[in-house]
TrEMBL record:
This is 3',5'-cyclic-AMP phosphodiesterase. It is an enzyme of class 3 (hydrolase). The keyword Nucleotide-binding does not apply. The keyword Protein transport does not apply. One of its GO terms (molecular function) is 3',5'-cyclic-AMP phosphodiesterase activity. It comes from the Bacteria. Its EC number is 3.1.4.53. Keywords: Hydrolase, Iron, Metal-binding. CDD domains: MPP_GpdQ.
Length: 267
C-alpha cells in the first residue's frame, strides 16, 4: 500500500490485544471484549484526520472465523484503512483464508515519509514469540529497499524486557537477531508492539520501543506474577512527522466502568 503525502504528518492509531471470541458475549477476565472494543472505536472516531489503523495482534482469543469477521466489521466500519498482524492467540491460517486478497494483511505500507513493516512473531501452539528466518529475511529486504527515509516496525511480542517477570518470559525469544537486523540500517525510528497489555515507551539500542494498552483488560506494570490492572482499555496515537520525529500519546476509555475479575491468574 502506498500513499503520497510525504510532506505531511501521518496520524496512526495502534489498537492491540482485542481478544474477541466466537460468542458476542465472550469475556476475558470478566470483561466483555467486544463491548470494550466498541467503546474504543467510538472514541477513535472523534479523532480528526486519522490516516490508518494498525492492529498489533491477539485480535482473537479463540482463533474463530466469527471473531475475525466481527473485528473486520467493527474496525473497517470506521472507514479508515487498517492493517493487522497476528499474535500468539490468533490463528493466522484462519486470518489468511478469510482475508486473502484484502489489504488488511499487507506486510508493508508506504505512507507519507514513512515505511511501515508488519512482522509475524507468532508460533503456532506457543505463547512466546520468535521471528522465523523467512520473517527476518523479509525484514532485511524491506529495510534494504525501503521506499521512504523513516521506518516503523510493528510486531506482536515485545522485543525488550518490561520489568514484569512473568510476561518477559514470553516475549520475543530471538530479540537479539531482530535488533542485529535493525542495526544495519539508520532508517528505523521506532518499534510498535502489543502483547504486554500496558503502556510502554523506552529507548533500546537507540530505537524507540512503544506498546499500547489493550482494547480490553490491562496487566499490572512491574508485576512478578500475572495480575490484571485497574487501568481502562485504550489505544495509542502516533503522529509520524516527515522529518522522522514521532509524537505519541495514549488515550483510554474512562467514561464507563468495565467489569474485571481480579481473582483470575492467567489468560
Amino acid at each position: 500500500m502506498s500513499a503520497d503525502n510525504s510532506n505531511n504528518t501521518v496520524t496512526i492509531i495502534q489498537i492491540t490485544d482485542s481478544h474477541l471470541f466466537q460468542a458476542a458475549d465472550g469475556r476475558l477476565l470478566g470483561m466483555n471484549t467486544q463491548d470494550s472494543l466498541k467503546e474504543v472505536i467510538k472514541k477513535i472516531q472523534h479523532i480528526d484526520n486519522v490516516d490508518l489503523i494498525l492492529a498489533t495482534g491477539d485480535i482473537s482469543q479463540d482463533g474463530s472465523a466469527r471473531s475475525y469477521k466481527e473485528f473486520a466489521r467493527l474496525v473497517n466500519g470506521m472507514g479508515i484503512a487498517s492493517y493487522w498482524l497476528p499474535g500468539n492467540h490468533d490463528e493466522f491460517r484462519v486470518m489468511a483464508q478469510l482475508f486473502a486478497g484484502k489489504t488488511n494483511l499487507y506486510k508493508k505500507i508506504t505512507i507519507g515519509n514513512w515505511q511501515i513493516i508488519m512482522l509475524n512473531s507468532s508460533i503456532p501452539g506457543k505463547v512466546f514469540g520468535k521471528l522465523s528466518q523467512a520473517e527476518l529475511n523479509f525484514l532485511n529486504t524491506s529495510l534494504k529497499n525501503a521506499e521512504r527515509p523513516n521506518v516503523l516496525v510493528c510486531l506482536h511480542h515485545h522485543p525488550v524486557p518490561v520489568d514484569s517477570a512473568w510476561i518477559d518470559q514470553i516475549g520475543l525469544h530471538n530479540a537479539e537477531e531482530f535488533f542485529e537486523a535493525l542495526a544495519q540500517y539508520d532508517s528505523v525510528r521506532a518499534i510498535a508492539c502489543g502483547h504486554i497489555h500496558q503502556e510502554y515507551d523506552q529507548i533500546h539500542n537507540g530505537i524507540r520501543v512503544l506498546a499500547s494498552p489493550s482494547t480490553c483488560v490491562q496487566f499490572s506494570p512491574g508485576s512478578e506474577t500475572f495480575q490484571a490492572d485497574v487501568s481502562a482499555p485504550g489505544y495509542r496515537v502516533f503522529q509520524l512527522r516527515a522529518d522522522g520525529e514521532i509524537g505519541t500519546f495514549v488515550e483510554r476509555v474512562t467514561h464507563i466502568e468495565f467489569e474485571i475479575d481480579y481473582s483470575v491468574k492467567g489468560y
